[in-house]
Protein 1
Amino acid sequence: MTVRVHNFCAGPCTLPLEVLEEAEKEFVDYQGAGMSLIEMSHRGKHYDAVHKETTDLALDVYGAPDDFAVLFIQGGATLQFAMVPMNLLKPGRRAAYVNSGSWAKGAITDAKPYGDIYIAWDGADCNYTRMPRSEEIELSDNTRYLHITSNETIGGIRFPQWPEVSVPLVADMSSDYMSRSIPWERFDIVYGGVQKNLGPSGMAMVFIRKSILEETNRDIGRYLRFDVHNDKESLFNTPPVFTIYIVGKVLKWMKRKGGLSVIEGEAAEKAGLLYRVIDESDEYYRCPVDPVCRSHMNVVFRLPSEDLEAKFLSEAAAANFVNLKGHRSVGGCRASIYNAMPKGSVAALAEFMDSFRGSN
Ligand SMILES: Cc1ncc(COP(=O)(O)O)c(C=O)c1O
């Protein structure tokens, strides 16, 4: 029998077991075609059905309004760091960025070559332990958009409330993608790598307000243009067929579970199990994050010493709780508990943490 560990990896990460098993069954001979889906033309009837279904499901499951399109673009979230300003910024317009930590810094660095970028709120002053409230975000004239990172995967912080500001929002939602509902009217673009909540790595899913496609820049390479991807319905070149196929299956799994609101409720419950252990540990476990901004996807915590952290990680791994080491830039521990992480695995980890504290 296959043994599955409790995998708390920050991404790529745990996917729904039933999706993996379905894909395994279909892998060698896709629907009687005598070949695998990854061996056939992306212009043929089998893949065409997969592509359309995943597109429709993405819009449906996320509750995107009619004036949004969804695009599948290779290069992960990182390519979007550059593509967004390349497409949206024009001479005389500026872009505002919330600097909330490691991933926001990536977006800022990659936007700088393409226009006038400024920091509208800087989390450096609080060591990136919280997100700004709307009234703390300082916008200047001629700002085209405000870029936010909805959840900082490394720092373990999230926006508890979506910012309400006078300009459209653009958000990197990679690490809490489709785990919570969003006020679409505030956004022009929502993007994220799919390798946490939705499927294999290497692709971004980009929700874009269709009306802004009339004004996006045209003087860039074709693959970099949002309007080209939209006109070609994400089939401008050979798409990552396997990734799109798995994302479609994960979206169907989300629907079967009851959709976004059920997923959102479960995420709060699962995160609550771990934060409770931390809060009731008499400061044995410490979460460095402002409690209001604690992530529901990436729970970061420290133990009393680095030696105890090493012991914790090693005993946890021996008990099948793997990938709990914090990011190398910050140390400590991190449990990533994305949509497909079973509640039972989180409850088991909470129990393990309690018992480790008892004996150490
Ligand atoms: C919040 C956030 N943004 C961007 C990225 C980069 O994503 P990708 O590897 O798909 O480029 C990550 C990856 O972990 C992330 O967590």
Note: DSSP finds nine helices and 13 strands in the chain.
Protein 2
Amino acid sequence: MSEPQQMPSFHSTPADDGQQELLVAVLDAQADLTSIKRMRAWASKALGVRPGEHVLDVGSGTGSEVLAMAAAVGSSGRAVGVDPNPRMIELADTRTGEAPATFVEGSAYALPFPDDTFDAVRCERVFQHLEHPERATAEIARVLKPGGRAILIDSDWSTAIMHPIDPTIVAAMQSIADDRTPNRESGRRLRGLLSAAGFVIDDIGSEAVIFQPEVSAPMYAAQVQAAVASGVLTQAQAEQATAELEQGLATGDYLFSVTMYAVLGHLPTAV
Ligand SMILES: C[S@@+](CC[C@H](N)C(=O)[O-])C[C@H]1O[C@@H](n2cnc3c(N)ncnc32)[C@H](O)[C@@H]1O
């Protein structure tokens, strides 16, 4: 098994270069996963961005989905990414090239745009990091024009599988993720959040993200160590989890996954 890595956290703005490089490497590796590509393709078709539209990606990370939307809106439209991490904004800017895309520093809690600015908004794997997700959906509703569409995509970490590690050990390891992922069952709450913000729900999709062992095994190893450090696992349980993980990897009997949900809605048009 590979060496354990530092535990990445998207919850707050990273403080050092090593953490930032790790976050970008994780996002780039995830963008290559077949399951993420399938979910994004479904979500993009569902959102149906058209030439000339003004569109926003909240928590845009490396900016890959802003660039995809920029291609859809064309030169008569505008695609914007917003993220509170200035280093992500800087990175996304460097990847933009000639695309009609811009990146702005800001939070989902206080989107730096006037009311009624956008035709469509997407937000992927951000709500799990928000302590107050209802404030984010209110902001998304505010910046959308009447009739505007939104799609929220997020994981529900209670659906995570780390086979063949003993599920009771997995549950204990998951419990320490709370500080970094305050809204870890976000996936199941997206529909209710959009409804409460005044959206009409149009569709719901889901995809189990299947993680590749090269990406997930070192992170799980780091999680085991963090669980021991925080006292939720004994050293003996950690050794058991590590042995089970190594055995699974050696025999090919492993499955690392989490279910993501995507909810599409639109605001009523003004009367
Ligand atoms: C797991 S990454 C997902 C990035 C991108 N949406 C994707 O799917 O590749 C989570 C992103 O949410 C951003 N984020 C964290 N807190 C946020 C907030 N309050 N408002 C907006 N974005 C936030 C992080 O900086 C990070 O870029």
Note: Strands lie at 54-58, 78-83, 101-105, 118-124, 144-163, 200-210, 255-266.
